[in-house]
Amino acid sequence: MNDRPSPALPRRPLVVFNPSKAADPASRKREILAAIERAGLPEPRWLETTTEDPGTTMTAAGVADGADAVLACGGDGTVRACLSALAGTGVPLAILAAGTGNLLAGNLDIPDDLDQALSLVRDGALRCIDTGSCGDERFAVMGGLGFDAAMIEGADEGLKTRIGWAAYILSGFRNLRRPPALYRLTFDDGTVVERRAQGVLIGNVGRLEAGLPVLPDARPDDGLIDVAVLAPTSLRDWAALGARIVARRRPQRRVLETFRTSRLRIEATPAQPIEFDGDVCGTEHDVTVRVDPGALHVYAPPVKDGAPATLASTPAAEAVR
User: Fold this and answer.
1) What per-residue confidence (pLDDT) applies to 316?
2) Which residues pair with 128 in a beta bridge?
3) pLDDT-derived band at 312, boundaries 50, 70, 90
4) Could you give the count of Cα atoms lying within 13 Å of 132 in the half-sphere of its Cβ?
5) I need a labelling partner for 92 at 20 to 30 A (CA). Which of 6, 63, 70, 214 fits?
């Protein structure tokens, strides 16, 4: 199954806290520690992220020192930093969402409320989910080459603080007319697809902010990544794409073509910006992304439909019709 009963309460929990995501970090720390006490958890070791270490190094050091659960308090960037150290270790991750998007928490139905989120550590299910990897980068939500990364890179930090994820929409409008690139996609069975497009999305989960399903077939525990080639050619195409996603209808294939695979090589001409879970990671022209099935244990509610995980070898590239 893709979830199993939670083990005994952790005895040496570690909190990785991003103070930049709190209006009053000291007050937020008191709130979190009080909620941890109410949940009946032991007093945790407390570490705060910095510009130099957004969480990966301190998480790895904490696990080496005996931490048996990591509580990430921040946005998707903090969560990604923590899971980069936790994937493959068996040490579980709890998400105390506090960022702009909180997409992994939203896709796993993890509550925003502190007490409810911590109750999952006390008596919830421990889900095993996939992670994606690209060189040294790991992600659990989505990656993007091209438009998606340019939109994230162009979002104003001050606006993100004031209006949240709507800042990305404003940046998206500014990037609607960016020139397309040529993308050559090579899937796990050797199939090659070439498209001139605005960008390529790589999803481990499928919902954006407000639950909008850009990749409705994506599951975080199926051993596959869902791939979307974003190819609108006019403002009318962009408007139709947005309307269909908001209405939870599948976009036309010529505008958003989707595939599934366990391994994907993307060659972009010219080189394009790339992002993973909201972190822009430079500009690339040739990247390979693969799935690491069941690599991360997360405290999360049980799967609503009770469907089992598929953690064995996965099928070859499969176009989603």
Assistant:
1) 34
2) 297
3) very low
4) 32
5) 214
Chain segment 251-275, per-residue pLDDT in tens? 888 999 999 999 999 999 999 999 9
Its pTM stands at: 0.87
Residue that the structure tokens 């009770």 belong to: 306
- CA 178, chain centre distance (Å): 25
Ranges of each domain in the chain: 3-129, 137-294
Select from 185, 194, 209, 178 the least CA-distant residue to 273. 178
- What are the residues facing 142 on neighbouring strands? 203
CATH 2.60.200.40 fits 137-294, yes or no: yes
HEC string for the chain: CCEEECCCCCCCEEEEECHHHCCCHHHHHHHHHHHHHHCCCCCCEEEECCCCCCCHHHHHHHHHCCCCEEEEEECHHHHHHHHHHHCCCCCCEEEEECCCCCHHHHHCCCCCCHHHHHHHHHHCEEEEEEEEEECCEEECCEEEEEHHHHHHHHCCHHHHHHHCCHHHHHHHHHCCCCCCEEEEEEECCCCEEEEEECEEEEECCCECHHHCECCCCCCCCCCCEEEEEECCCCHHHHHHHHHHHHCCCCCCCCCEEEEEECEEEEEEEEEEEEEECCEEEEEEEEEEEEEEEEEEEEEECCCCCCCCCCCCCCCCCEECC
Interval 212-222 mean pLDDT: 93
Cα–Cα distance for residue pair 270/180, rounded to 1 Å: 9
